[in-house]
């Protein structure tokens, strides 16, 4: 294999995979490496036995790995046995939903990777309050039919939604309050009751904490309001076979179709960068490579002009010299969380909520549900953090018939002294009670996921060395952020490669090459 | 035409298209000549087939629809058994269903359907007497078609009209309560729908007059329902118009005063709601007319509201000014 590449990408996480696919389709020579034997890295979709192995690895991991920093996963516990038919489960390490309008879905469509996967609408979104769940009103007709809200509250809620769906940036209601807590903003400026303000904050804007700022929350709400109706009443789609990991694999497939080389299951054993003191040469066809990597078990070394890596796979000495791409979307949660406590539970039984409201037909109930526990809503639960629960079942081919997966996650604003299990077990119990599935838990695992944030470097970064941060774990925001970071990384890579591959880079090129225009049908003779 | 992209074509491509179209035009003109020259009195199967080909190209050619119906009546039916007639008409109905998918607004196709439905003979024979089964089956299917259309577009007033026609002509009448439920469903899904509210008003009148629903309690429930719509979207006219129908001539003083209070609260919450102001003026004038003709307070309130309306809705300035004068305050 010719071992000179334009770009080497390390890590097949979602962001890196989007970038690799874009570069490959743009005509660059790409090599894509991942130490894991599967695609998706930290957001992979794993079968149940792969998950059990992954859990055991981190549970017993006492090694001081020199290549990566402090353990990304800690406080790992597990309980129960892996049920049979392990291969029929697709468990996501980073469950997420896809907003129907946004940079991620646009990338999925423009790159044609959407054809590699299947998607369905998210089912109900419910919020937990005093021991019961309530549907979150998503649209005008939901609000109209709601029996629990007073007339006045309906008017105020509608007025807020109209405001949030429009151009609020220069509105007088918002002036000076952009960074104020969203909960307060809702109650003071729109005179909403505390109960309604909580529903909006935690189950429409999907805030983690009570002190989250107004402007980013409004941005999120506007995106989701505009997404509603595109494919159905829900603003979100759910990917089959575990979501993000499967989609990352789809981008890798697109990348391979574009000519990229894939190396899975092997680590990089050494990195060498060309001496940065050397002055940059003008374009020569035999320009020496900027970076050279050695891959475990491969005799030939690989060379490239541009090295893109997830931050977790870069050794310390390189990471401090890398240009770490930051996302700049206005809807990032502010303040951001510090750690995420997670639980994955396998349930031997149905995971649909029994319908009790509005006499709706429960025959076609979706098994992809989103359940939000606001702070202070559960006895024994958190007083500061919201908890998101997502279900996945046979409807998205994530589990065999009659079984299901529960994902529980809690963002923490600071280091907590407690274990992941202590924090989340009350929620698991509450959810099982709601699903009337108390006795059906077969396997569960709890763990803490560290969210490392790297300080931006003050000196110039090494030319051609780009680092991509870990996927934002937020349920609804994560994938859009991944698409934006991926595009920014793509353009930086292109700029760095511009000198070497001038012919390839066309001034007006787009992130994804445009789809060929479809032939227009001539005439419409319909035989009847 | 809707949904047809504008294409910029080169002169060669344009010439090509013209050539292709010319052959289609010629075909059409030949066919038309053939059919029209046959009109009197050719009732043959041949002619029948020709009308089909022609109508496929141009379903708006109503003369040819008439001709087709005449062929059926004069040429084919006299030689057919009731069963054969039923089959022929069922065939016509499926044909028009397919045609409607491509041309959903062509009146002449709808016409033809109605004619077919009305001409379904009695049958089949049960215990020696003809039953109404064929007719029942065809009208039931028709209702199903209308419901599909309303699922696709709940605001299509042609479909609502047609729905009333079908319900009126069904051999065994549906009960009115189920119709009321149907309107509830449509209104619940999207209350910005004049036709659904209108249909609801028609159903309610039938139910009140037949004694199946108590008018007083039912009206109160309706006020409750429509208030939810008014508060959810004060700009939606269909709800206001329904509310006005419920009030009617304003003879029920208690109801009138209660609703005035409800709308006043809405106006306080949403001070720019034009419809709230307009309705308050209208209802307070009803109070003046029927219950308190000398109330200076009411007159003053109306004048204040009208003055606000003149600012808020300047294109109707003169109307509000005329109303102010009529109040004679």
Throw out a few tags for this protein:
heterodimer; A: 528 residues; alpha/beta; FAD/NAD(P)-binding domain; Guanine Nucleotide Dissociation Inhibitor, domain 1; 8-stranded mixed beta sheet; 12 helices; 21 strands; disordered C terminus; B: 329 residues; mainly alpha; Serine Threonine Protein Phosphatase 5, Tetratricopeptide repeat; two-stranded antiparallel sheet; 15 helices; 2 strands
Instruction: Specify Rg of chain B, calculated over alpha carbons.
Output: 28 Å
Total of helices of chain B: 15
The Rg value of chain A, from CA coordinates, equals 24 Å
What is the straight-line distance between the termini of chain B? 54 Å
Q: Which structural category do the helix and sheet elements of chain A fall into? A: alpha/beta
Quaternary arrangement of the chains shown?
Answer: heterodimer
CATH topology of one domain in chain B: Serine Threonine Protein Phosphatase 5, Tetratricopeptide repeat
**Secondary-structure element pattern of chain B, one letter each:** HHHHHEEHHHHHHHHHH
Helix content of chain B: over 70%
Question: Mean of the pLDDT scores of chain B?
Answer: 89
Low-confidence stretches of chain A: 64-68, 281-285, 357-363, 516-528
Low-confidence stretches of chain B: none
- CATH structural fold name of one domain in chain A: FAD/NAD(P)-binding domain
**CA-based shape of chain A:** globular
Question: CATH first level of one domain in chain A: which class?
Answer: Alpha Beta
In whole angstroms, how far apart are the ends of chain A? 59 Å
Largest sheet, strands/sense/barrel of chain B? 2 strands, antiparallel
CATH superfamily of one domain in chain A: FAD/NAD(P)-binding domain
């Amino acid at each position: 294999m010719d071992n000179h590449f334009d770009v080497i990408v390390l890590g097949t996480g979602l962001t890196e995979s989007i970038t690799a696919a874009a570069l490959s389709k743009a005509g660059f020579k790409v090599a894509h490496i991942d130490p894991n034997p599967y695609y998706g890295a930290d957001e992979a979709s794993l079968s149940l036995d792969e998950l059990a192995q992954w859990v055991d690895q981190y549970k017993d991991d006492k090694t001081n790995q020199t290549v990566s920093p402090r353990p990304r996963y800690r406080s790992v516990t597990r309980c129960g046995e892996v049920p049979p038919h392990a291969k029929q489960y697709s468990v996501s390490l980073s469950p997420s939903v896809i907003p129907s309008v946004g940079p991620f879905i646009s990338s999925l469509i423009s790159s044609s990777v959407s054809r590699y996967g299947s998607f369905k609408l998210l089912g109900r979104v419910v919020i937990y309050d005093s021991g019961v769940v309530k549907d979150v009103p998503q649209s005008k007709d939901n609000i109209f039919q709601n029996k629990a809200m007073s007339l006045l509250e309906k008017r105020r809620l509608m007025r807020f939604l109209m405001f949030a769906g429009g151009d609020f940036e220069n509105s007088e209601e918002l002036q000076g309050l952009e960074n104020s807590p969203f909960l307060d903003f809702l109650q003071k400026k729109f005179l909403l009751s505390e109960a309604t303000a909580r529903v909006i904050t935690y189950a429409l804007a999907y805030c983690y904490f009570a002190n989250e700022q107004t402007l980013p929350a409004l941005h999120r709400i506007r995106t989701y309001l505009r997404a509603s109706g595109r494919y159905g009443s829900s603003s979100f789609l759910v990917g089959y076979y575990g979501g993000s990991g499967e989609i990352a694999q789809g981008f890798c497939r697109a990348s391979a179709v574009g000519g990229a080389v894939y190396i899975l299951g092997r680590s990089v054993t050494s990195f060498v960068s060309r001496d940065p003191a050397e002055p940059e040469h003008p374009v020569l066809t035999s320009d020496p490579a900027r970076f050279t990597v050695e891959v475990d078990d491969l005799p030939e070394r690989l060379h490239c002009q541009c090295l893109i890596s997830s931050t977790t796979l870069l050794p310390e000495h390189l990471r401090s010299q890398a240009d770490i791409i930051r996302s700049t979307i206005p809807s990032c949660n502010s303040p951001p969380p510090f750690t995420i406590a997670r639980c994955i539970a396998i349930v031997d039984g149905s995971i649909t909520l029994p319908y009790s409201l509005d006499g709706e037909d429960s025959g076609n109930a979706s098994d992809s549900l989103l359940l939000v526990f606001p702070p202070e809503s559960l006895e024994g639960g958190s007083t500061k953090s919201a908890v998101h629960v997502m279900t996945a079942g046979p409807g998205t081919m994530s589990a065999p018939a009659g079984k299901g997966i529960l994902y529980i996650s809690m963002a923490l604003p600071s280091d907590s002294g407690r274990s992941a299990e202590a924090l989340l077990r009350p929620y698991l119990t509450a959810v099982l009670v709601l699903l009337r599935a108390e006795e059906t838990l077969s396997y569960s695992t709890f763990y803490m996921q560290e969210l490392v944030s790297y300080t931006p470097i003050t000196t110039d970064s090494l030319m051609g060395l780009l680092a991509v941060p870990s996927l934002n774990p937020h349920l609804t925001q994560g994938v859009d952020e991944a698409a934006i970071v991926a595009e920014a990384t793509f353009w930086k890579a292109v700029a760095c490669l511009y000198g070497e591959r001038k012919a390839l880079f066309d001034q007006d090129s787009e992130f994804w090459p445009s789809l060929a225009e479809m032939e227009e049908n001539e005439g419409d003779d319909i035989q009847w | 035409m809707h949904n047809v992209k504008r294409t910029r074509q080169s002169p060669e491509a344009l010439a090509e298209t013209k050539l292709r179209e010319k052959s289609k035009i010629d075909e059409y003109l030949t066919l038309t000549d053939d059919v029209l020259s046959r009109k009197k009195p050719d009732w043959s199967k041949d002619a029948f087939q020709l009308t089909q080909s022609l109508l496929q190209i141009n379903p708006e050619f109503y003369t040819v629809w008439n001709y087709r119906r005449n062929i059926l009546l004069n040429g084919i039916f006299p030689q057919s058994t009731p069963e054969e007639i039923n089959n022929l008409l069922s065939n016509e109905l499926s044909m028009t269903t397919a045609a409607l998918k491509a041309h959903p607004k062509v009146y002449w196709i709808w016409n033809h359907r109605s004619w077919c439905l009305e001409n379904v003979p009695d049958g089949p024979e049960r215990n020696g007497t003809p039953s109404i089964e064929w007719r029942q089956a065809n009208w039931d299917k028709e209702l199903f078609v209308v419901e599909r259309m309303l699922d696709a577009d709940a605001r299509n007033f042609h479909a609502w009209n047609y729905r009333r026609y079908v319900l009126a002509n069904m051999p065994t009448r549906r009960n009115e309560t189920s119709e009321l439920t149907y309107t509830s469903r449509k209104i619940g899904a999207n209350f910005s729908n004049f036709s659904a509210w209108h249909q609801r008003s028609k159903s309610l009148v039938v139910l009140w007059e037949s004694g199946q629903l108590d008018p007083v309690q039912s009206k109160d429930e309706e006020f409750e329902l429509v208030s939810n719509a008014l508060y959810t979207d004060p700009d939606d006219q269909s709800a206001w118009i329904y509310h006005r129908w419920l009030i009617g001539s304003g003879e029920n003083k208690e109801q009138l005063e209660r609703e005035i209070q409800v709308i006043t609260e809405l106006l306080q919450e949403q001070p720019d709601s034009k419809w709230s102001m307009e309705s308050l003026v209208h209802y307070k004038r009803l109070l003046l007319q029927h219950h308190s003709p000398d109330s200076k307070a009411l007159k003053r309130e109306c004048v204040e509201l009208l003055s606000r309306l003149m600012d808020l809705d300047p294109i109707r300035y003169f109307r509000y000014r005329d109303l102010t004068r009529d109040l004679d305050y």
